[in-house]
Amino acid sequence: MVRSPGHIIVFLLLAQCVAAKQIIVCPGCPIVSVNEAIKVAQHGDEILIRSGTYEEYGIVIDKQIKISGEKGTVVDGLNKGEIFTVIADHVEISNLTIQNVGTSYTEDRAGIRIRKSRNFKITSNRLINTFFGIYLEHSSYGKVAGNFVEGEAEEEMSSGNAIHAWYCNQIEITDNEVRNHRDGIYFEFVDSSYIKGNLSEENLRYGLHFMFSNDDNYFQNVFRDNGAGVAVMFSKNINMWDNQFIMNWGKSSYGLLLKEIYDAEIVNNRFQENTIGIYVEGSTRINYRNNDFVQNGWAIKISGGCLDNAISQNNFISNTFDLSVRNNKNKNLFDGNYWSSYTGYDLDKDGIGDVAYRPVKLFNYIVDTSPESMVLMRSLFVDLVNFSEKVSPIFTPKNVIDAKPHIRPFKRKAI
Amino acid sequence: MIRILKYSFFDLMRSRWTIVYCAFYGILTLALFGLNSDISKVIITLMNIVLTLVPLIAMIFGVIFYYNSREFVELLLAQPIKRKEIFIGQYLGVAFSLSLSLLIGLGIPFIFYGILSSTEIFNYLTLLLVGVMLSMIFAGIGFLIALKYQNKIKGFGIAIFTWLFMAIIYDGLFLLLLAIYRDYPLEQFSLFAAVLNPIDLSRILILMKLDISALMGYTGAVFQKFLGSQLGMTIAFATLLMWVIIPVSGINYISKRKDF
């Protein structure tokens, strides 16, 4: 069938009346800037930004629109100010490269800010050198997926977070890659949200940071080479599973820092080569199950005020210290873990060691009381002291004991 | 002196004990690689062994060698050779043969497992250097002790006690002091005390290279700052060198005055 050009034009005009119209922005088009496009756009319109560099900032999106870019579409803020500020619901931003917001000490500038909006979607963008990458405030039911956020943070004072959420709920943050910011992902007063499949690395402070956030889950993420992997503070009901905490190595650096949290599940995670695998302070009713602690300085360090924590079926492999416990009055349960430094035997061949294992060595105790003695690590004297303490425990806490240590490591599925 | 050095060196290299010593390190290293192919883990394990065994064996070797070659020494003394040359030559022969055994024993398996193309090469070189320095130091101390005491039992006793002191008791006293004065800032003190004992100094040199300093918190930072600097490294190796020079000049001093 052959149609005349006239038919097509009529058809297109009709289509525009009925459905949302598409507004195209390109350097040679009638509309050359994103700001203009938003001015002329109606609710429900789509804006397609063709490839090219657009030097714009202070773009306020106050309509329900979708903005997307082509390959090579760059919006450059020239270090002068915030680039996108979304104050409408149902806004989608995708496939854009957003760069150079500029550092400010008086305002928290962001590459994309979502303010008091619902149902937003931010997908597949690249945010380069944005002070704060994606800043969500008082928003809910949103998705941040597949973005790449890279900062140029040099010190904590003058840097922002890659993905920052404040007073939000029902947020999904998935498959993003964030690096070189202060915190990779930051949650403050964020409830009922989840964080999945992200890679957070080389951030100055934390890979992921929870403050006063409840009922959140994070899983299948990788936290590598951050100041500290993840910090969970003053929060309730946070579940953590299938995450990897790798090479968070340095002075007072942690894989996972737990401070004042209640009712958490820490399952199937891998902690490898961290100075301290998990540092726990004032946290209660936490289950540590099926985790692997490999080659950490300390696998777990439990400070004061930790009650009713259960640590079971974990693998503790080649850690310098398996466990350090400040206060032996705490009731924490160690049950059925595998400890690579366990030297007991299993006569009845049921896979469980016949002699209980004491994860706290005398040298741990000495190091806790006078940190300078760490200088003697790996010396013959320390080995002797540890051995004699093992034979007849006097100083090490009596109730920190694994009565059923496993003889063989637990097998894990590859994450 | 060179001739005496050569003589005692080749004499020792042919001896069964040197070969056993060399083979011990070779087999040990191969066994460790068999259990774990991670080079840095092998280096850590070897470090523990080298720091404990090298001083003990070097010292005992020095003592035994002197007592065994006593008659030969008396023969040499009758010749127109300077005493200094005889004893220093013999000491160097022992020290070099021990060092060489160590280098071969540790070297071949590592080359076999590809140390040359590994990033751990500097840690490995530190291990070797430390092993050689410890051999030199403790062979010297052993030689000195044997020279000083005619009585073999007494000589062995003192040698073993010296090793025990350096390897274990020193650290015990060190720890005791750290525990007693733990309310005071002790970083400078621990730095000083660690540098003073060649075994501790060697251990820390290797630990620092293996990036365990992060574990040590503030103390580690102090050590890293000190040993990471050009000056600190120079001081550390100067101290090790001093530990070689002291026994050697002791050998020289005693041998001059001794009435054989």
Q: Cα distance, first to last residue of chain B?
A: 20 Å
How many helical elements of chain B? 11
- The low-confidence runs of chain B, each spanning 5 or more residues with pLDDT under 50, are none
Helix content of chain B: over 70%
Helix and strand content put the structural class of chain A at mainly beta
What is the helix content of chain A?
under 10%
Radius of gyration of chain B: 19 Å
Kindly identify the CATH topology of the domain at 20-226 in chain A.
Pectate Lyase C-like
> Average pLDDT across residues of chain B?
87
Principal-axes geometry of chain A comes out as elongated
Low-pLDDT stretches of chain A are 12-18
- Strand-residue proportion of chain B: under 5%
Q: Could you give the topology of this structure?
A:
The complex is a heterodimer of chains A (415) and B (260).
Chain A: H1 5-18, E1 22-25, H2 34-40, E2 46-49, E3 52-55, E4 59-61, E5 66-69, E6 73-76, E7 84-86, E8 92-94, E9 97-99, E10 110-115, E11 121-123, E12 126-128, E13 132-137, E14 140-145, E15 148-150, E16 163-174, E17 177-179, E18 185-191, E19 194-196, E20 199-201, E21 206-211, E22 217-219, E23 222-224, E24 228-233, E25 239-241, E26 244-246, E27 254-259, E28 262-267, E29 270-272, E30 276-281, E31 284-289, E32 292-294, E33 298-302, E34 309-312, E35 315-317, E36 321-325, E37 332-335, E38 338-339, H3 362-369, H4 380-391
Parallel strand pairs in A: 1-2, 2-5, 3-6, 4-7, 5-8, 6-9, 7-10, 8-11, 9-12, 10-13, 11-14, 12-15, 13-16, 14-16, 15-17, 16-18, 16-19, 17-20, 18-21, 19-22, 20-23, 21-24, 22-25, 23-26, 24-27, 25-28, 26-29, 27-30, 28-31, 29-32, 30-33, 31-34, 32-35, 33-36, 34-37, 35-38
Chain B: H1 2-14, H2 16-35, H3 39-68, H4 70-77, H5 83-112, H6 121-148, H7 152-180, H8 187-196, H9 198-209, H10 217-228, H11 230-257
